[in-house]
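JOB MANIFEST
job_type = single_chain_structure
chain_count = 1
residues = 110
[input]
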Amino acid sequence: MDSNDPLQQRLAQWRVGLEAPPRFQAGVWARIAAEESARRTVLDRLGEWFMAAFHRPHMAAAAVTLGLALGIGVAFMKAQDSNTLATRQLEVRYMETINPLAHGHGGGPS
């Protein structure tokens, strides 16, 4: 293009004289933040709360300790139930070995 072209000269001189209203940028960012907070689910908010709570080392240590204690407690109770069931089964088997009537045969003549 020719530098003597009147269109090129006019375009070179052209300036946009628009200015944004006061606090326009702050208003845009406020609307964006409002949209993002409206889209967050309960799970997102719960995750943020956990991250904030466990960001402190003593809270994280307390949570790990509590989780371990609960896990050990549940495992202990489950082991007790299993041991009780095994003991009952062993009692029944022992009784069947020493008591012929416990077999269900009746022990009498056929």
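[summary]
Helices lie at 6-13, 24-39, 42-53, 57-98.
The chain has a mean pLDDT of 84.
exit_status = 0
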